[in-house]
Amino acid sequence: MQQELINKKKKLAVLGLGYVGLPIALEFARNIQVIGFDINEDRLQKMKEGIDPSGELDTAAFNGCDIEFTSSIEKLKEANFFIVTVPTPIDEHNLPDLKPILGATKFIGQALKKGDYVVYESTVYPGCTEEDCIPILEELSGLKFKTDFKVGYSPERINPGDKEHTISKILKVVSGCDAESLEEIAKTYEIIVKAGVYKASSIKVAEAAKIIENTQRDVNIALMNELSIIFNKMGINTYDVLEAAGTKWNFIKFKPGLVGGHCIGVDPYYLTYKAQELGYHAQVINSGRYVNDSMGFYVSKQTVKKIIAAGKDVSKSKVLVMGATFKENVEDIRNSKVADVVKELSSYGVTVEVTDPKADSEELKQEYGFELVSKPGKDYDAVIIAVNHNEYKDLTESWFQNILSKDGLVVDIKGVYKGKIKELAYWSL
Question: Contact at 8 Å (CB) between 318 and 350?
Fold first, then answer.
């Protein structure tokens, strides 16, 4: 398969051209023929013009790439190696929403031929590839799994906004349904991954490895968040404590904060769902999720308490929230916990204004019901630095003094301005 792809006798298709799929598709397209498949025609048009709709890649990333962007099943049939990189979200009940991945599977089922390979990269619970996806492939194609086509799983490790840990530089975990497919899939990814591949012992192991990468981070951040709540009651600064504890050689350095996005705030629910299905309640993971999901409301309540303590009428107060994306230096607003901050403040009658140099105001309005202001106003009773974009890092105390009212408060969620705010009231997690 690898050599036929390199010689351009066969084609590779990537289904789902978002934050994960497009970079992978373009990386392969520098070496082989690629079909970039997506159902969003607006996004496809932008990509045809050399524009990344996600804002992660510049136009130069499209140069020298042998890729055709399409939504056509007929075009998809030209591929022999399929990679699925569609989102795997959760629903309003925090349960896995498999519609995107099953939808992509149905498209492939209509295009599948004897000798083809299908590799899933989307984050799923262990067993999803074999139990949920492969039966659909067999049914729609009329082909037999392992005999006529083969399947593998290779978890994505792309970190939005990270320009250092790119696809080619990250060790790639791969798996296959048998020894032959494991080798073929590994060789195919070696076309673009210079850091090498790690061959997992099974598809389920590879699925599980991916899901615990984010679950581990989630649980550790939850501990920091819970500690910040405790230390706040004690009247000590969490970052002072972490700085002191961090002097020990084996102390793991995590920080408190809002945990959103499409991965860390979502993936653990896939694992707990599967555990529940098997009759086990995942207490540590669920507890961590509860803590992290509540932090936006906690920040808002602490802000309101301090506004009241300053002798102000909360219902007449005004707060500026700086940052609306799920993390710093990205345009991605998916599952942003800043929305929880805005919602909770508004429930107290607070007038909330939001700025963000990266986010799209219309997207925020559609997703969360609030828009951005073009620039900060005056006389805010509190300013909440919710996301530490680079554009915010060099702001001075005088800048905050200029937009805050008398006895105004600086709420610094990530502790960016620790030690820099001397005269104003200051609080952080």
Answer: yes
Rounded to 5°, the CA angle 98-284-212 comes to 50
Parallel, antiparallel or unpaired: strands 425-428 and 67-70:
unpaired
Which residues are within 8 A (CB) of 224 and not within 5 positions of it... i.e. 6 or more apart? 238, 242, 254, 255, 256, 257
C-alpha to C-alpha distance for 23 and 49, rounded to whole angstroms: 16
Of the candidates 128, 133, 177, 263, the residue annotated as catalytic is: 263
Q: What is the CATH number of the domain that holds 131?
A: 3.40.50.720
If asked whether residues 162 and 276 sit together in one domain, one would say: no
Which residue bears the tokens 């590839």?
129
Q: Answer yes or no: do 64 and 189 share one domain.
A: yes
Q: Quick one: residue 13, left, alpha or beta (phi over 0 = left, psi -120 to 50 = alpha)?
A: beta
Are the C-beta atoms of 354 and 321 separated by less than 8 Å? Answer: yes
332 close to 19: Cβ distance less than 8 angstroms: yes
- Can you give the pLDDT of all 429 residues of the chain as single tens digits? 888 999 899 999 999 999 899 999 999 999 999 999 999 999 999 999 999 998 888 899 999 999 999 999 999 999 999 999 999 999 989 999 999 999 999 999 999 999 999 999 999 999 999 999 999 999 999 999 999 999 999 998 776 666 676 788 889 999 999 999 999 999 999 999 999 999 999 999 999 999 999 999 999 999 999 999 999 999 999 999 999 999 999 999 999 999 988 888 899 999 999 999 999 999 999 999 999 999 999 999 999 999 999 999 999 999 999 999 999 999 999 999 999 999 999 999 999 999 999 999 999 999 999 999 999 999 999 999 999 999 999 999 999 999 999 999 999 999 999 999 999 999 999
Sheet with 197-199, strands from edge to edge, namely: 67-70, 34-37, 11-15, 79-84, 117-120, 150-153, 172-176, 197-199
CA distance 426 to 310: 12
CA pair distance 193, 84, nearest whole angstrom: 17
d(CA 261, CA 366): 17
263 a catalytic residue: yes
The whole domain housing 169 covers 2-201
Do 182 and 37 lie in a common domain?
Answer: yes
What is the pTM assigned to this prediction?
0.91
Say if residue 188 is in the same domain as residue 211. no
Q: What's the total number of domains in the chain?
A: 3
277 and 329 fall within a common domain: no
Closest CA to 161 of 393, 417, 413, 389: 389
Tally Cβ neighbours within 10 Å of residue 291.
Answer: 22
